[in-house]
């Protein structure tokens, strides 16, 4: 009686070779490498988190009354209505007391867009296996990322300490600045959402800067050159652009609208 | 797209010239749209129309960042759709919850 073997005999030498067949792991879904694909799906899930934040902002903002010049007179802060962003974010470092509506946010936006450009330049240099250019552009990106974080630290500090005038609260006392329970700008949730949304974005920028520092060290050590490709720079680049993308939305929904 | 093609194979040690025209073009588009947003902040009164303009301009900016900088435009169709369809559902979530917020507002005031 002869037996028919259904298991395929694989010789030892074949096991050493990379698998190339369609059904044994040789194919890359969507023609993207494992790492890049997973980065895309991670970013998709991260986009859900940020969308949850911004959607919450939308719901809560519409739940409160909007400031109406015809009824409420000249604009002033009050817990009765949602503040106008250009009246809250109008300070600029070194220009104490002057009204620069959204000026500092515009600068921060420019810094982040610029860092995105230097990041693509690093990725492009990686495609050409140009180690020196990768190092140069990664350093610029780290510099812009760190500048953005410092700007955000200044903005938070200003937001927390508030203006000299402050706002008269319901119990008749004057309150300056903001914390999670009280703020001079408007409803409690306005400051809470500011802290959570810009804070969560800032945390992402911080992680991005750490990853870029790792990338710079690995590039300098020649890790990627030995590996034969700079895909790590590309993957971290995807993350970095995503952080810039989130800022574009935060900028519109928190500062402009 | 030709300008996204990987570098041509060269002799060992030779580094091809950078191809960065498209990067700066995208950068100027992003800066231009941001500048335009500021023009609307200062020259137009707040309202639904202005907010709609902001949202449309934001989507334009998002398109340029995702398509060019993140290279999604040059990926396979399957990857593009698997990212875009879940994102499109979020627009539904946003519209639903803003409507909910308006309903709470009307119930309170």
UniProtKB/TrEMBL annotation, chain A:
UniProt keyword annotations, A-Z: Cell membrane, Membrane, Transmembrane, Transmembrane helix
This protein's GO CC annotations: plasma membrane
SUPFAM superfamilies attached to this UniProt entry: Cytochrome c oxidase subunit III-like
InterPro entries named in the record: Cyt_c/ubiquinol_Oxase_su3, Cyt_c_oxidase-like_su3, Cyt_c_oxidase_su3-like_sf, Cyt_c_oxidase_su3_a-hlx
Domain of life (superkingdom): Bacteria
Any GO BP: aerobic electron transport chain
Keyword Transmembrane helix: yes
A Pfam family matched in the record: COX3
Domain Heme-copper oxidase subunit III family profile: start-end pairs: 1-257
Transmembrane feature ranges: 37-60, 102-125, 137-154, 193-217, 238-256
Composition skew (Polar residues), residue ranges: 1-11
Subcellular location: Cell membrane
Chain residue ranges for the region called Disordered: 1-22
GO MF term list: cytochrome-c oxidase activity
Membrane topology: Multi-pass membrane protein
Record carries keyword Transmembrane helix: yes
Family designation: Belongs to the cytochrome c oxidase subunit 3 family.
Designated name of the protein: Cytochrome oxidase subunit III
UniProtKB/TrEMBL annotation, chain B:
Entry keyword set: Cell membrane, Membrane, Transmembrane, Transmembrane helix
Native organism: Hymenobacter metallilatus
GO cellular component: plasma membrane
Upper classification of the organism: Bacteria, Pseudomonadati, Bacteroidota, Cytophagia, Cytophagales
Localization per record: Cell membrane
Pfam families recorded: COX4_pro
Membrane topology label: Multi-pass membrane protein
InterPro entries: Cyt_c_oxidase_su4_prok (IPR005171)
Primary location: membrane
Record's protein name: Cytochrome C oxidase subunit IV
């Amino acid at each position: 009686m002869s037996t028919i073997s259904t298991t395929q005999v694989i010789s030892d030498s074949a096991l050493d070779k990379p698998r190339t067949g369609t059904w044994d792991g040789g194919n890359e879904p969507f023609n993207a490498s494992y790492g890049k694909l997973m980065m895309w799906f991670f970013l998709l899930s991260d986009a859900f988190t940020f969308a949850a934040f911004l959607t919450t902002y939308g719901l809560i903002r519409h739940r409160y009354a909007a400031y109406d010049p015809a009824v409420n007179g000249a604009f002033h802060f009050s817990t009765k209505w949602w503040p106008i962003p250009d009246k809250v974010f109008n300070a600029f470092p070194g220009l104490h007391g002057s009204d620069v509506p959204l000026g500092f946010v515009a600068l921060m936006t420019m810094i982040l867009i610029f860092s995105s450009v230097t990041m693509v330049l690093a990725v492009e240099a990686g495609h050409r296996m140009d180690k020196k250019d990768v190092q140069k552009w990664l350093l610029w990106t780290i510099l812009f990322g760190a500048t953005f974080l410092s700007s955000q630290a200044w903005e938070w500090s200003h937001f927390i300490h508030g203006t000299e005038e402050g706002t008269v609260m319901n119990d008749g006392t004057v309150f300056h600045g903001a914390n999670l329970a009280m703020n001079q700008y408007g409803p409690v949730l306005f400051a809470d959402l500011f802290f959570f949304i810009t804070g969560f974005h800032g945390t992402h920028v911080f992680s991005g800067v750490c990853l870029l520092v790792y990338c710079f060290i690995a590039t300098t050590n020649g890790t990627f050159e030995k590996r034969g490709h700079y895909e790590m720079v590309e993957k971290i680049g995807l993350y970095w652009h995503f952080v810039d993308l989130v800022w574009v939305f935060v900028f519109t929904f928190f500062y402009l609208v | 797209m030709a300008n996204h093609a990987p570098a041509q194979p060269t002799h060992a040690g030779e580094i091809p010239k950078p191809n960065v025209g498209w990067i700066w073009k995208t950068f100027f588009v992003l800066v231009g749209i941001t500048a335009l947003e500021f023009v609307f902040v200062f020259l137009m009164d707040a309202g639904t129309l202005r907010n709609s303009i902001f949202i449309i301009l934001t989507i334009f900016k998002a398109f340029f960042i995702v398509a060019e900088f993140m290279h999604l435009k040059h990926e396979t169709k399957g990857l593009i759709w698997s990212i875009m369809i879940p994102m499109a559902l979020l627009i539904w979530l946003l519209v639903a919850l803003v409507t909910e917020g308006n309903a709470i507002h009307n119930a309170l005031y």
